Amino acid sequence: MKQKGTPVFKPAIEQEELDAAREALELGWLGMGSYVGAFEEQLRNFLGVKDRHVVAVSTGHAALHLGLLLAGVGPGDEVITPSFNNAADFQAILATGAEPVFCDIEDDSLCIDLKSAKRLVSPRTKAVIVMDYDCMLCDHDRVAEFARDHGLRVIHDAAHSFGSKYKGMMVGSFSDISMFSFDPVKTITCIDGGALVVKSEEEVSRLHEMRLIGMSQPAKVMYTNARAWTYDIKSIGFRYHMANLHAAVGLAQLSKVDRIIESRRASCRYYNRHLKKIPGVVAPKTDFDDITPFLYYIRVPADQRDAVRTFLGEQGIDTGVHWQPGHWFTLLKDCRRDALPVTEQVASEILSLPLHSFMSTETLEAVVDSVASFFLQNR
Ligand SMILES: Cc1ncc(COP(=O)(O)O)c(C=O)c1O
To answer: Which atom belonging to ligand 1 lies closest to the Cα atom of 294?
Structure first.
């Protein structure tokens, strides 16, 4: 059954993904195998990370969990992260036995406010998770300095910024530990998938074991669609490996990543050009140079946000809210935190509009017209 109207997200599934999925299914080796090895290699080429290693896993959440474990985070530790972040980040911190500690974000970048983070550093702080929000990037030089000053590990959540560049460097090529998500709605999808980019062979070996319920099963062997029947288990592990079918879809997506990037950038530039003229709407302050946008957000007056959503919904235009901040959730409401005025404000104003790869001009026009009509009628 086809979806009606304009969804907020829509994966770019074309003939190459269908062919890739069929091929992977016909191969009959559905678990981790040759496609996963090839996906890691293609990802490494795309990122241009000759001095780093890519490890594919089952989801972005799994990547975060393993990244935190790699950083030595465990029970009794604290991890500072913006409350304005994805629930997967909070749950990954909790899964290690550590506690999330919430800092604020900057009003212009919607990324971590390092002054707020600094106020939260304690003897228990082990790491910081910084996240690039959609088309905005953190000030990663200052993040590295902050981490150095306080002896912290950095997990760079680049789920939104896959394919973007920071000061000319590919996201994923410069942070302590970087992670990506390739879930169903991301810029490129593996159906579900994630990846970590790390610096050393030793970290790769640990990740290879942890993603395969602790088994010292050589990836080299598995990437030939075979497995060793004897292995050791020396440490804790999870069933977090990527499946061949998913990697095959990811490879098909990577083969057209330039087209995907260009089309998303062009759609966001169209939105920005038209939406920033509408009184009541604040569009992202970027020209999208060097940015691969994952979602497109606007900010609208908090007391009108729900009405805008309803109005667009009535015209078949789906919208999203990314996100409810962490400290609003029952599970996390008692976590230690700084004052979060910007987070509170942004969380009540933010609105995601439809953004897909290869969106037609008619669809973009329809979204812009609907937003414009709403604000014309509700001045
Ligand atoms: C910023 C961010 N981090 C992590 C994740 C988790 O990734 P996954 O859905 O692949 O587990 C998401 C997913 O939406 C995300 O947006």
So the answer is: 16
